[in-house]
Design goal:
Number of domains: 2
Number of strands: 18
Distance between the termini: 11 Å
CATH superfamily of the largest domain: Medium-chain alcohol dehydrogenases, catalytic domain
CATH architecture of the largest domain: Alpha-Beta Complex
Structural class: alpha/beta
Oligomer: single chain
Largest sheet: 7 strands, mixed
């Protein structure tokens, strides 16, 4: 057993409080990772509020980066000292996984949101010996040490700054992958991104990478819209100032865009993203809403060749896509580091609040490893 510090949520919409927990040593197929830094993601907040009912109390966090400390007996791809990013988990053997569609794994929910291993156990105990849910996205990186499955680790070069890399495991790869892997817009095409948070801005950067010549960012935050311009948006729309659909029509000669992305998880905005499309256009839904959230659409909008599809984790195979994003970042083509604000682990509750209230784009908490374990 290891003694660790971890941020624990004990009740619905409750605070992230740092506690001393016991964490089991890795089983045969597990890897123990010393967490250097981890991003705060919208999904952590959604689960804290129990829109996705992960059992509480729980250790969340799913954008971790760190150094391998110990490997299970059957693990051959990793060794102590390896630098890794932790991403989402998939089974690897269902029909979708075998076709490279790991984000649509038949076991995705259980592997990422059950709060338990597949055998129903949790590796955490609190100071009173009580069970604490973990294995969130098969990592629970809001702790000084994390247990991951070997399958959801990505080895990265030792010469890149680990403290920046965690968000590649979820939010950044979701936005960039939605463009590069899922929508695949042609060079010279048009794209509107609804929501200029970290996911939406990753999509804006990716759109510039693939050669979109009309890139429209829609948000109500002027500072985010200004940053969107700097990162590649050719036009920005303040959704608080009027109808964004009409504004997009005006920017595209009345035709609409070929592609759109909805990153806010708001039904009203999803409808706008669909209605901003030209005929035969495609809208990708990224925003994760509460279970049971419904949306209404004009059937005639869909009838004229428009389509809507959901996108999980940017249609990414992390082992392939994350190293590609790192190389693009090295070359100055994908400056996702401009989205990141750092916090010490002791201030994780403030990092979550600032994320929730839109004061920062991508909060990353850093661990002082000398005092963490």
């Amino acid at each position: 057993m290891y003694e660790i510090q971890a941020a624990v949520v004990r009740e619905q919409s409750g605070p992230f409080r740092i506690e001393r927990l016991s964490l089991e040593a890795p089983r045969d197929d597990e890897v123990l990772v010393e967490v250097l830094a981890t991003g705060v993601c919208h999904t952590d907040i959604v689960v804290r509020d129990q829109y996705f009912p992960v059992p509480l109390p729980a250790v969340l966090g799913h954008e971790g980066a760190g150094v391998v400390k110990q490997v299970g007996r059957s693990v051959t791809r990793f060794a102590p000292g390896d630098h890794v990013v932790m991403s989402y988990a998939s089974c690897g053997h269902c029909h979708n996984c075998q076709q490279g569609q790991n984000g649509y794994c038949n076991e995705l929910y259980g592997l990422n949101f059950a709060g338990r291993r597949t055998d129903g156990s949790t590796p955490y105990r609190d100071a009173q010996g009580g069970e604490v849910s973990g294995c969130f996205f098969s990592q629970s990186s809001f702790g000084s040490l994390a247990l991951a499955r070997a399958d959801n680790l990505v080895k990265i070069p030792n010469d890149v700054p680990l403290e920046l890399m965690g968000p590649l495991g979820c939010g950044i790869q979701t936005g960039a992958g939605a463009v590069i892997n899922a929508l695949r817009p042609e060079a010279g095409s048009s794209l509107a991104v609804f929501g200029a948070g970290s996911v939406g801005l990753a999509a804006v950067m990716a759109a510039r990478l693939v050669g979109c010549t009309t890139i429209i960012a829609v948000d109500m935050n002027p500072a985010r819209l200004e940053l969107a311009r700097e990162l590649g948006a050719t036009a920005v729309i303040d959704a608080a100032a009027g109808d964004p659909v009409a504004a997009i029509q005006a920017l595209t000669g009345g035709e609409g865009v070929q592609y759109s992305l909805e990153c806010t998880a708001l039904p009203k905005v999803l409808r706008q993203a669909v209605e901003s499309l030209r005929q035969t256009g495609v809208c990708g839904l990224i925003g994760a809403a509460a279970l049971g959230t419904e949306v209404t659409l004009d059937m005639n909008s869909i009838l004229f060749g428009r389509s809507l599809r959901g996108i999980i984790e940017g249609d990414s195979v992390p082992d392939i896509f994350i190293p590609r994003l790192i190389e693009l970042w090295r070359q100055g083509l994908f400056p996702f580091d401009r989205l990141i604000s750092f916090y010490p682990f002791a201030e994780i509750e403030q990092a979550v609040r600032d994320s929730e209230q839109g004061r920062v784009l991508k909060a990353v908490v850093r661990f002082d490893q000398e005092g963490a374990a």
